[in-house]
Design brief:
With about 230 residues, this protein is α/β, with parallel strands linked by helices. The chain contains 8 helices and 13 strands. Its main location: cytoplasm.
Amino acid sequence: MNILLVEDDKTIASGLEYSLEQEQYNTILCHDIASAKATWAREKSSIDLCLFDLSLPDGTGYELCKLVKQEKDIPVIFLTVMDEEVNVVMGLDMGADDYITKPFRIRELLSRIKSVLRRYNKESKTNASATITLPENILVNTLEGKVYKNNQEIIVTALEYRLLLIFSNHIGQVLTRNQLLERIWDVAGDYVNDNTLTVYIKRLREKLEDDPHQPTLIKTIRGLGYKVGD
């Protein structure tokens, strides 16, 4: 398992590198964006996960996250002293899978890494299957393009199905409203605005949740977005 670690504080970087290698992770360490980009261009085929400090001397981790996500589907975790909602949402919108606020305990970071990797492995297996099982006894048959609850077919519109499929392919991951809008806006050739997204979320809950007023399938993560599954 190869991890690209980009951290400008050399003391923190050395400590993280040591701790990760104690856990049998091979760490590729960079201290700025320029060296990280060069390393990524040279080593990206072998890199399995990225840890990016948000504030770097020649830019931000956002730039690196965007680059990585455009070229390879691997987890990206931000390390940041900034835990304000706007910074978290911005990172998630760019495709980051998680963030951890400094200072943090190494065990917490290792736990986050393992959690993200488990999610990616689960998604890989799910994408290879014709059916996706979700909470609330929901089954999505991707070959038929149909949705079932308690073995009974639930009639959904094309856009509702697309929205549910997006959630199904990102189980356990918080998706911001912007991420959802970017993925569904052109399903029927129509623009989907923020208010319309709210309506479709509401309709899916009414069709699929046991109690739409206390949803356990499509959970609202206050200030960030939505999540399906743990």
